[in-house]
Design goal:
By secondary structure, the protein is an alpha+beta fold. It has 3 domains: 21-90, no CATH class; 99-140; 145-419, no CATH class. The chain is 16% helix and 29% strand. The chain is built from 4 helices and 20 strands. It has helices at residues 84-90, 99-103, 106-144, 392-406; strands at 28-29, 32-33, 68-71, 74-78, 155-156, 166-170, 177-180, 200-205, 216-219, 231-232, 237-241, 243-246, 255-269, 298-316, 323-327, 334-338, 342-350, 358-364, 370-378, 413-419. The strands form 5 sheets. Strands 5, 7, 10, 12, 13, 14, 17, 18, 19 and 20 form a 10-stranded antiparallel sheet that branches. A hairpin with a 6-residue loop joins strand 15 and strand 16 (334-338). The longest helix is centred in the N-terminal third of the chain and has 39 residues, at 106-144. It is elongated, with a radius of gyration of 49 Å. 22% of the residues are buried. Keywords: Membrane, Transmembrane, Transmembrane helix.
């Protein structure tokens, strides 16, 4: 059965809706800024509107064509086209490789890179060596100038002087100089004495493996002997580095090794040697007699006592063939130690710091130990001007200057020995 045919002209065609896209060149409508408030578009005739949407690439837009689009659903949106300058930068080629480099073979290119790396490494090594040399020169200059507590500054000398190593004895004997002027009270002057100093045990230690020219000295023995005799007690000084120098007071003795340090000086006195003001003390006993059980000696303590010495390595001692007995380290018996083979000068002096010397009464117990028995008695100093608190190198330099000033002052506590 054939269907009826109808004419195409008789069919009604529904018109498609027109879509209008407006780009306004002005950022305002009716003189007011774009907002989210709906704005009625201006009337446009049907002849000026064509069906469809035209899509235009952004690159074809010119700067002056750029405008804001205001829609009811958004506050403000802005489309900005890429500038011509950005396009030019993006199209620039990379730098060209030099023609000389291209002409080189791969082998010579590798050699050139290796040489450049070696040159860079050599520059780093030379810079480090120059820095190390500058630091070493500064250290040598500081070590050459020795800060001395003597009245005259020691002179710089060679870095190393030959010296015999080992353990030796140094018998001080009678002092060349003895002063107790730092104590103002006559009944307390016995607290600082020089005549009862025991012999010193001096050990010249071997140098470290990598520092053969270094000379190190320690004072005191390893034995732990309890105080049992009156007089100045044994001292123990940690290892010190010896500095080559020349003693300006004794230039005829030639080159010497110099050392200085501070320690706590302890003196044990008989009960009758520290008495009340106005009472005469008993004469000083220099025999260093033994402390008996139940005796009540005075223990006088002088902190910040300066100890310094010169070992004249070019002057042999006349006591080289003699020896001194010391208690054995294990406490059993005594050992004979030969004397130091060089002429030596030892100086002790109480420095005026914020530490005040004092004496405290003790009692010898039946087990041979000293126990506290009475209160501490602070000693009266002649010079009450105290040195401010200092540490390390600053303290040592300050003590050196102070000792120079006290050399000509009667208000000093000082002992000096020349042995050999």
């Amino acid at each position: 059965m054939r269907l009826p045919r109808s004419s195409s002209r008789a069919t009604t065609t529904q018109a498609l809706p027109s879509i209008q896209t407006l780009f306004r060149s002005s950022p305002t409508l009716n003189g007011s800024p774009c907002t989210g408030t709906p704005v009625s578009p201006p009337k446009v005739s049907d002849k000026e509107v064509e069906d469809g949407i035209e899509l235009v690439p952004i690159e074809r837009l010119k700067r002056e064509d750029t405008s804001k689009i205001c829609t009811p659903s958004s506050d403000e949106k802005e489309f900005v086209s890429r500038s011509q300058l950005d396009l030019e930068f993006g199209s620039k080629p990379l730098p060209r490789v030099p023609k000389k480099w291209i002409r080189l073979s791969i082998k010579w290119r590798i050699v050139a890179i290796i040489c450049l790396q070696l040159l860079f490494l050599l520059t780093i090594v030379l810079s480090l060596m120059a820095t190390k040399k500058e630091s070493t020169d500064k250290t040598e200059q500081e070590s050459a100038t020795v800060q001395s507590a003597s009245p005259v500054q020691p002179s710089p000398t060679p870095r190393y002087l030959p010296i015999q190593r080992g353990t030796f004895a140094l018998k001080l004997g009678s002092p060349q100089q003895a002063m107790s002027g730092c104590l103002s009270q006559s009944n307390e002057s016995a607290a600082w004495q020089c005549a009862t100093h025991p012999s010193l045990q001096v050990t010249l230690l071997p140098p470290p493996v990598d520092q053969n020219n270094l000379a190190i000295l320690s004072l005191g023995s390893d034995s732990d002997v309890k105080p049992s005799e009156y007089g100045i007690q044994d001292l123990k000084i940690e290892p010190l580095e010896l500095k080559p120098t020349t003693d300006e007071e004794r230039k005829d003795n030639g080159l010497a090794y110099y050392f200085n340090t501070t320690y706590t000086r302890i003196v044990l006195l008989k009960e009758s040697q520290i008495v009340a003001q106005g009472q005469p003390p008993t004469p000083l006993d220099t025999s260093m007699s033994k402390i008996e059980i139940d005796e009540r000696p005075w223990m006088c303590v002088f902190e910040d006592t300066l100890l310094e010495g010169y070992i004249y390595v070019t002057q042999p001692s006349a006591l080289n063939n003699s020896g001194v007995e010391f208690a054995a380290a294990n406490g059993s018996g005594a050992v004979m130690i030969s004397s130091l083979p060089y002429v030596t000068k030892i100086i002790e002096q109480k420095m005026l710091t914020d530490t005040i010397p004092y004496c405290k009464q003790m009692k010898m117990e039946s087990n041979g130990t000293l126990a506290p028995y009475g209160d501490k008695k602070m000693l009266t100093l002649s010079d009450t001007s105290l040195m401010p608190a200092k540490f390390g190198e600053e303290l040592r330099v300050a003590m050196t200057e102070q000792r120079r000033q006290q050399m000509s002052s009667p208000n000093a506590c000082r002992c000096q020995w020349v042995i050999g």
